[in-house]
Structure formats: C-alpha cells, structure tokens
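One-letter codes give the sequence; backbone shape is given numerically. An example follows:

. . .
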Amino acid sequence: NSRTISLLSQLEKINLDSVLGESDNARYVTSKILHLVQSQEKTRKEMTSKGSTGIEVILATLEVNSFNLWLWVHKMSDQFKFLGGGRRASVLVTKGGTQILLQLLLTASKDSPPNEELMVLLHTLLAKIGPKDKKIGMKARINGVLNISLNLVKQNLQNHRLILPCLQVLRVYSTNSVNAVSLGKNGVVELMFKIIGPFSKKNTSLMKVALDTLAALLKSKTNARRAVDRGYVQVLLTIYVDWHRHDSRHRYMLIRKGVLQCIKSVTNIKLGRKAFIDANGMKILYNTSQECLAVRTLDPLVNTSSLIMRKCFPKNRLPLPTIKSAFHFQLPVIPASGPVAQLYSLPPDVDDVVDESDDNDDAETELEIETENDDDKDQHFKNDDIETDINKLKPRQELGRPIEELKMYEQFFPELSENFQEWDLVSKEPKAFVPDANLSGPIVVPTASEE
C-alpha cells in the first residue's frame, strides 16, 4: 500500500490502455516515481526487491510509449542506480531489459538523423548491463543491431560524447568471437587505429576504451591477420614508444598496458610474431622494460612485455651450440651428415623449430567453426566422451570366493550343478538341460534321440 506501489499500478494501467495521448499521464507518473527514487533509499530497494514488478512496469513503459517518454524514462532509469550495483543490473537483465533496449536501439536508428541524446542513453545503459548478460553479443546479432554502434562511430569521430558509450558497447560485443569477425569485415579494426593514433593526451578515457576494444577484436585470428597485413604491428609499437617517452610521471599506465594487450593479442598468430620480430619489437620491449624496472607501479607493463617477448622469441632445440644459450651442450658424437649436423650448421639468428601453429587456419573455416560453437551454447549439450555402449557400461560380476570353496554348498543348491530332465510334449521323450554359467536360467540341450 506504499506510494511507490500505487504509482506503479497507475503506470501499469496506462501501459495496458496504450491510448494515444496517454504519454503526458505516463510522464507525470514517472516523474513522481523519479522523485521518490532520488530522495528515498527505501524506494530504490523496493523497486528492485525480490518479487517486485517495478522494473517490469518501467520496461513495459519503454515499449509502448513515444520517443520523448523513452528519453524521460531512460533518464529516470539512469537515476535509479540499479546499474550501480551488480545485483541490480542483474535484475534488469533477468527481466528482459537487454532485449528491450536492443529493440529500442534498432527503432531509434531508423530515424534520420538519429536522436543523439537517445543514442547516448541507450548505449550507456547497454554498456552498463552488457557485462551482466552473457548472451548480449548473440542477442545483438540476432536483432540486427551489431553495426549500428559501429556506423555511429564512423559518422561521429569528432563527437567524443557519443562515440565513448558506442565504443563501450562494441567492447562488450567483441567478447563474442563471431561478432568480432563480423565487425572486422566491416572495418572496425581500421576504425580503432584512427582513434588511438597519433599520440595525444586529449580524451585519454576514449583512448583507453578504444584500446580495450581493439585488444578484444584482435583475439580473433581473422582480425589479427588483417592488422598484420596492414602494418599495424609497427603502428602499435610506435604508439607504445610514444607513450613511454611522454608519460614521465606514469599517469597513463593503463593506456600503455592497453597497447601491450593489443600487441599480445596480435602475436597469438605466427604472422603476428614474425611481424613483431621484423619491426624490432624485441629490442623495443626489452629496452622499455629495463627503464620500467625501477618503478614498482609499472610491474604490470614489465610482466606483459615479458610474456610477449617469451612468446615471440625464436625457439631452438637442445643442444644449443649458438650464442642464444647461456650453456653449451655438446653431443658426444656428431655425425658428419644428417639432421643434427644441419642444425649445428645453421647461423645463430635462424629459428630451427618450425612453427606450424596456424598454417592451416582459414578465415572462412574459422568463422564457420566459431558460428557452430556459438550456436551450440543454445542447444542441449552433448558430451562425446560419455560411453553409450551398454555392454561396456554393464558391471562385470565377479565371484567373491574361488569356485573350489563354493563347492561345499552344492548339496544345498542341487539345481545349480545337477542335470534335470524336462518332458517333451511333442516327442513324448525326456529332454535334458544343463544350468547356465551366468545363473540366468537353464539351457535346453537336445537328447540323442532328437539329434
């Protein structure tokens, strides 16, 4: 019987009527709810408590009313602060909030030009609740809104207020491998490099989000190959050196780590590692890491750089008769010819271990495999390791004692050892049978007369 429940009942009735011109009444009721939410913590808890229909009523209001009311309700939703905590955001997801917001985004994108204020609010909400919805990438692809955020970024590169939440949503989308490949085909990798370079300390928050999005995109081997083909490995190293030189007070450690994460993602493929070596990346990361050792807060940069260098360092077989090893392992006998002699005759800078980690990867094959893996999540899980052969699953019956010890009980169970005769009604002669070894019943054996 609280004031909030009464207002929610009025708003629900307005939604059910959905009569033209009711938006003013809905706006009036939502303003009252907004005032209560902003002024009373009790109301906020009541709206998101278990069994409450408050969020469902608000989401229903978003579906049935005009854009002006959507803006108003979105502002109210932002003030609700159920996005401020993980539990409250999860409540919004479980009530179907993600699906409704994606549908609103699709409808709003059809306007020319789209409402900027509405786009900012929609993307802000999606960016906040996206990490709580594991299937948001698949939902976005099914609803056809995957490229809406990408197109907004392409058309508004100078409007940082708009593209910041769009990049945050793209970062959430890119956690899905199928989405990452699809966005890469539409030029998202090239777009990210336009945002992160050249070096500038303006809009560092936008730079950080763009680097996180790029690192997620480059985890796809298709996008990583695309970045290598366009020479972006050298660009990433240049950007990292610029930030290392200009960030003398170490205020932008997260941006520098974001660049390293992009390099780490692109070097997951053989072409990326080769491009890293060719761009003198080993020397660059080694020198910058040496300069970071004195500052304890830069340990994450040193650790990430070490992982990249270890991954890209040429691999050799033991024994190593070259300067690459601190120890020299000499074989007792080295044949004059053969594979061992060929390895020993190689120059020091040659990688004698063939890297075939991704020679057979194909972009289209990868996309098909990723699509199948993504679709499997929505189907019943089938484990191929589960044994289905009944004969193998049937437990084997083993005697607890040897047969010799069990013979003392024969007198108590003569039917298990003696031969009995069964009268054959057809031939009017006795029919002999013997017991089955598995104790499952007698096996009838024909007599000599029957043979």
